[in-house]
Design goal:
The chain is mainly alpha-helical. The chain is built from 5 helices and 2 strands. A two-stranded antiparallel ribbon has the order 1-2.
């Protein structure tokens, strides 16, 4: 019976390992999916801001018009990088976690198989002990029961070995996968923020160079009827700049213009992702 207790301790540890993976990987999947959706909504709000800036620029004096136009173009470029960030988070981070449910399901099935085999071994042992107590002189029945116990024990030993290999492979793969997913997450975020800082720095310089004096002179002249308001040609295209290549060394690029991204992400914050690849709530 000692070996049975030892195996029971083993299977409890294995079961706990799989249960913890199912629990925490599910939470990681849900939270990182929500993170990605919120990033996409931030992108959409910035797109709206770009449009409003362009519309505003068309109503202003030449210097302010040019400054706001350039600033809006830079802000639109950041959203192209943010679009690439969203796409890569979905592909490299969220999707692997969603698919992890299949690995967990397979490993849990192996544990259930072992428990059935172990249960049969215990049943045969109990039957043997019962025969020894009630019919100690019935050597034929006892011998048959001993043979059944031996077969069940061999089956249990073989299944235990297979389960140990399965759970060991599961644990090894789990650790490597988590390392890779988190590394991809950090790499994607670093790449986006590095490029965003570069573009935002240019936008800051654009704003720093602006001087309101010429626009004030133009405004005062128009206010006193001295000269007409010289409007530059309005910006006909309120869409941000075309897709900007993703930073060197990374795969993937901004895939669409802003108009094609409209409505990509749902607005509800309560959506959750399951490990099995099922999403609660619509995705468009």
């Amino acid at each position: 019976m000692n070996i049975i207790f030892s195996r029971d301790s083993q299977v409890r540890l294995m079961d706990s390992t799989v249960t913890n993976a199912e629990r925490y990987f599910g939470q990681f999947c849900s939270l990182l999916a929500a993170y990605t959706r919120k990033t996409a909504r931030l992108r959409d709000k910035a797109d709206q801001l770009v449009k409003q800036l362009v519309d505003f620029a068309n109503t202003e004096s030449p210097e302010m018009r040019a400054t706001v136009r350039d600033f809006a173009e830079d802000l639109a470029q950041v959203q192209d990088y943010r679009q690439a960030e969203v796409e890569r988070l979905e592909t490299k981070v969220v999707m692997p976690l969603k698919l992890y449910g299949a690995h967990i399901k397979q490993t849990r099935a192996e544990i259930k198989k072992f428990k059935r085999v172990q249960k049969n071994e215990i049943k045969q042992l109990e039957k043997l002990e019962k025969l020894r107590r009630k019919s100690p002189s019935d050597r034929q029945m006892i011998s048959q029961a001993e043979t059944n116990v031996q077969r069940a024990s061999v089956d249990t030993g073989r299944t235990t070995h297979q389960l140990e290999e399965t759970v060991d492979a599961f644990q090894r793969q789990k650790l490597r996968d988590l390392q890779r997913v988190l590394s991809d997450f950090v790499t994607i975020e670093m790449a986006f923020h590095a490029k965003a800082v570069e573009v935002y720095s240019r936008a800051f310089q654009t704003l720093e160079k602006y001087s309101p004096e010429r626009d004030l002179q133009d405004f005062r002249a128009r206010m006193h009827g001295g000269s007409e308001h010289h409007l530059a040609r309005p910006l006909l295209d309120a869409s941000p700049s075309p897709g900007v290549p993703w930073p060197p060394g990374s795969q993937g690029a901004p895939s669409t213009v802003r108009s094609q991204r409209k409505g990509d992400e749902p607005s509800e914050d309560s959506e959750e992702e399951d490990l099995g690849g099922q999403e609660q709530g619509p995705r468009h």
